[in-house]
Write a structure and sequence with these properties.
Blueprint: H1 9-15, E1 21-22, H2 25-31, H3 40-46, E2 53-55, H4 60-72, E3 77-80, E4 97-100, E5 107-111, E6 114-117, H5 123-134, E7 136-138, H6 150-156, H7 163-166, E8 177-181, E9 189-192, E10 209-219, E11 224-230, H8 233-245, E12 251-257, H9 261-265, E13 278-284, H10 289-297, E14 303-307, H11 326-335, E15 339-341, E16 343-346, H12 351-362, E17 366-367, E18 369-375, E19 378-383, E20 386-388, H13 392-405, E21 408-410, H14 417-420, H15 427-436, H16 448-451
Parallel strand pairs: 2-4, 3-4
Antiparallel strand pairs: 1-2, 5-6, 6-10, 7-10, 8-9, 8-10, 11-13, 11-14, 12-13, 12-18, 15-20, 16-19, 16-21, 17-20, 18-19
The structure holds flavin-adenine dinucleotide.
Length: 474
């Protein structure tokens, strides 16, 4: 592991005192937490983590000042958008400074097809601005659209609502340009496009801070939110896949929820579904609704129970995407705190067979939740499978069984880039970290290949520099 310098917190704080610094203890605590607690494994390991101070820069010049000062005083810096990440991405492993980008929220310019924006802009505000200015909206967004920032999405997220049509953030064309500040004695400002984007996108802010993004947009629609039920899980999968493959039907979401998800966890659906109903949630462009009805007319195993543009439900269930992606797990957790989840990728063309094989292997220990996504032009499924948690050992075993069956797991019970990804180092991110963060101060503990290059991935990585767990009598 790289030698850890001792931070001089007091000196850094004093040097930054003219900026917007948070002094309130509770506010510092809140800014030191993300959604790591979704994972029972991370909850026990990260609950105690706390920043020494929080600073909220108002401009790129202030970001540079924070990074330069923290570099001089050896203070770790963990950047925060809105703190909605699940993998403990925004948790300050060694304390130090949390740099909260809440003030850097301006849309700089917007035109049909593209937007230039500061990283702290909340996605909902970004879309409101772009729709108002030119009738366009984000191609994709996490289901935390109402609270998450665009910088946090690109640095920590992967895709989501919109991925059924546009693929994922990492796919060519889904990010145009990133402006990045390094953490050196004299921070540099770099502009990345093309192949270079992979150096910092989905890098958890470990090797550079994004201060401006240029992203593509798609035409905005007044999306129709629909829910369909069926007694046959295979029919639910086929419905989501067929509609995503229909060339003339424009979707922004196609989620599949195995029974009893809708009945047990979707409170506003309870009166309209039965225990054995599987459900499909859709966002459909208004001009495609006729085609959806035509498709449903060909199928006698599917029932449209709700469409947001025409229904008699006394209480609206809200938007479909707040049932999908990781909101499914959130709703389940509220009812049953024992639930946790996995992130699985079922690749084309054997995705449905593989899902059925996994279903058969586990019974009701797992509840399937799938999202149709486009992968290299082919529709397949991302799984955000709900798991009835018993022990860490069993969770690891469940993951192993998935991998042996041929499913790809992105383990949400790990806080490092490698373990949450493809279990090996990303040379582009690592080489840029060595150059852009030579002291290893940016979001420490999240890139194993930098901290502990000879790690063997047999057990969960325990970052040696992490603030130790409090002792019982502390
Ligand atoms: P944060 O959590 O604050 O940060 C995320 C990571 O990015 C951290 O490592 C942080 O240090 C880093 N970071 C933040 N800003 C910058 C910057 N300017 N420069 C460099 N690094 C930076 N994710 C998805 O991809 N798709 C989903 O559909 C989805 N659904 C979710 C649903 C729920 C209920 C929850 C709790 C989470 C979900 N997530 C999803 C995860 C998360 O909400 C998204 O990835 C979100 O976009 C993160 O944005 P944020 O502003 O909260 O980022």
């Amino acid at each position: 592991m790289t030698t850890l310098p001792t931070p001089d917190i007091a000196a850094a704080k004093a040097a930054l005192a003219h900026l917007d610094i948070e002094e309130n203890e509770n506010a510092i605590k809140r800014a030191s937490r993300d959604f790591f607690w979704y994972s029972p494994v991370l909850k026990t390991r990260m609950d105690h983590l706390l920043a020494d101070f929080v600073v909220r820069p108002k401009s790129e010049a202030e970001v540079i000042e924070v990074l330069k000062t923290c570099y001089a005083y050896d203070v770790p810096v963990t950047t925060r958008g809105a703190g909605t990440g699940n993998y403990g991405q925004a948790m300050p492993m060694r304390g130090g400074c949390v740099m909260h980008l809440v003030h850097m929220n301006k849309v700089i310019s917007c035109a049909p097809g593209r937007v230039i924006v500061e990283p702290g802009c909340v996605l909902k505000d970004l879309d409101a601005h772009c729709i108002g200015a030119c009738g366009y909206e984000s191609r994709m967004m996490p289901s935390t659209w109402a609270t998450a920032t665009v910088g946090g999405f690109v640095a920590g997220g992967s895709g989501g609502v919109g991925s059924v049509t546009w693929g994922q953030l990492r796919d060519l064309g889904n990010i145009i340009r990133l402006r990045v500040v390094t953490m050196e004695e004299e921070p540099r400002i770099l502009e990345f496009r093309g192949e270079e984007l992979a150096r910092v996108s989905h890098g958890y802010g470990t090797n550079g801070i994004i201060t401006e993004l240029e992203l593509p947009l798609a035409p905005a629609y007044d999306w129709v939110h629909c829910f369909i039920t069926t007694k046959d899980f295979g029919a639910a999968m086929a419905c989501a896949e067929d509609l995503a493959n229909e060339d003339g039907i424009l979707l922004k979401l196609a989620s599949v929820f195995e029974a009893p998800t809708a009945k047990a966890y979707f409170k506003r659906m309870e009166a309209y579904v039965e225990e054995d109903d599987h459900m499909v949630g859709l966002m459909v462009a208004p001009h495609a609704m006729d085609a959806l009805i035509t498709y449903l007319g060909r199928r006698d195993d599917l029932s449209l129970i709700y469409r947001s543009d025409d229904n008699d439900w006394p209480r609206s269930p809200g938007v479909a995407f707040e049932y999908g992606w990781n909101h499914t797990t959130l709703r389940a957790l509220k009812v049953n705190p024992e639930i946790t989840y996995l992130q699985v990728r079922y690749g084309f063309p054997d995705h449905k067979e593989l899902i059925e094989k996994i279903r058969a292997a586990f019974g009701d220990e797992l509840i399937q939740h799938l999202e149709a996504i486009r992968m290299n032009g082919k529709v397949a499924f991302a799984g955000l499978t709900m798991v009835k948690f018993t022990t860490e050992e069993r969770l690891d075993e469940i993951i192993r069984i998935h991998e042996e069956a041929g499913a790809l797991i992105f383990n949400p019970h790990r806080y490092t880039l490698e373990e949450g990804g493809r279990q090996h180092s990303d040379e582009r991110q690592l080489s840029f970290k060595k150059e852009a963060d030579p002291k290893g101060l940016l979001n420490p503990g999240k890139m194993i290949s930098f901290e502990t290059p000879d790690f063997d991935f047999k057990d969960i990585y325990a970052y040696p520099g992490m603030t130790p767990l409090p002792t019982e009598d502390a």
